[in-house]
Amino acid sequence: QISRLMIHFCNQQHEILVAVRNLFRLDLSRIVVLLVCFPGLRAVFRMLFRFAPSHKLIKFVLGHLKSVIQQRRNQKEDPVLVDALHLLLEASEGDRKGPALLNDDEIIWNAYVFLLAGYETTSTALSYVCHCLSLHPDVQERIFEELKSLERPLKYEDMAELRYLELVILESMRLYPPVPL
């Protein structure tokens, strides 16, 4: 889901991927949590950090998120897999009226928090999946066969069909949780 929000690229040198990597080299997590919890602080943040290198990176990533959100809103068909961004967009539309609805700014910052929260845990989880697969070549072979059965290049939407791969990922996360319990 995290990569679906942002990192939907094969080119590892794509400018958004480079910006995200550089962002994660900085320790901005506490600042971001404050900005999400207290939206009024955003104006103060903009003034204080206008000239900091992190400001340009954050502005670039938030701008990209804004364009991804706009693209998602313009999609007419329902998604095959419902992800976090879909749920955020659903919370901003629909039948509900009143202050509980999310505005675009709140959607963008929440998507940014999902990105921050999922970046490290996703890489840790994938490392453990690879470790488990290296210990069980038979499982690795079965996943390979499942992937071959698609008979086309893999897309995000195909994940709904890859039941065995999903079970392997869930089992490795059960054995090796990416976040301490």
Automatic annotation (TrEMBL):
It is found in: Endoplasmic reticulum membrane; Microsome membrane. Pfam families: p450. InterPro entries: Cyt_P450, Cyt_P450_E_grp-I, Cyt_P450_sf, Insect_CytP450_Detox. Its main location: endoplasmic reticulum. GO terms for cellular component: endoplasmic reticulum membrane. Belongs to the cytochrome P450 family. This is CYP361B-1. It comes from Diaphanosoma celebensis. The gene is CYP361B-1.
